[in-house]
Design brief:
single chain, 147 residues, alpha+beta, Glutaredoxin, 2 domains, 4-stranded mixed sheet, 5 helices, 48% helix, 9% strand
């Protein structure tokens, strides 16, 4: 008896077509899942950023009472001060003092004679420098902290 190779050509085109079809479906499903995740991520980030913060009324009161928060984007203490406000930080009476390259100070802060960050200035002209506890900001402005 002789052993001969079976002709492979008869099944290759069918298997190749099936494999190509399966791969196309897999690739399509993969990209649909990626697109869905991106859409969900963008939608969730929009919802989260727009949701009201616990300190919205307090931050708004600081603005109404003419408090000004001078800071710089590169300043870790300014970032920590903003984190105290959570989602309500967007309502703070914040003035950016740094030039975009982080190497200089904007004229508005030079005119206000801001020398360190963060600096809080109040309606009565007094200032506090550094990270200020929320309770101290409430005392200084008369704004009520939510319970």
């Amino acid at each position: 008896m002789r052993c001969e190779k079976a002709p492979v050509a008869s099944w290759r085109p069918a298997a190749a077509a099936w494999y190509a079809g399966a791969m196309n479906k897999s690739v399509t499903i993969f990209w649909l899942i990626i697109i869905a995740l991106v859409i969900l991520g963008v939608g969730a980030s929009f919802f989260i950023k727009q949701s009201p913060g616990r300190l919205d009324s307090f931050a708004q009161c600081l603005f109404d009472e003419e408090a000004i928060f001078y800071g710089a984007f590169w300043c870790p203490h300014c970032q920590a001060q903003k984190r105290l406000f959570g989602n309500s930080a967007r309502l703070l009476p914040y003035v950016e003092c740094s030039t975009p390259d982080g190497q200089g100070q904007l004229q508005v802060c030079k005119d206000a004679e801001v020398e360190s960050y963060p600096t809080w200035e109040f309606a009565d002209g007094t200032r506090l420098n550094g990270e200020i506890p929320l309770e101290q900001l409430a005392e200084k402005t008369g704004c009520r902290l939510p319970a």
